[in-house]
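Hey team,

Filing this mostly as a record. A colleague (T.K.) asked me to run one chain through the structure pipeline before their review meeting, and I want the input and output archived in the tracker in case anyone asks later how it was produced. No errors, nothing strange. Just documentation.

Input sequence:
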Amino acid sequence: MVDDHSAANQKLKSLAEADEIPLPQGLDDEHKQLRAKLEKLEGALARSLHRGHRLCRAARARPAQHHGARPGRMAEGA
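Output structure:
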């Protein structure tokens, strides 16, 4: 995917230069704000997934506390 996007960007750049069309050198303010918002969401999602993973691992490591349950398994109806 990275190779495909890089090739497409290079082709676009060549076409723009041939027709003397200036390309933007960076993001405008609207897109900078959007990128910052998405980065925050990405960070929050990663933290949430990591926390969930740790909780699952901890739950599997604890012996079950339910009647009739074997370690590592939930009792039926629990």
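Quick notes for T.K.: Residues 29-61 form the longest helix (33 residues). The mean pLDDT is 83.
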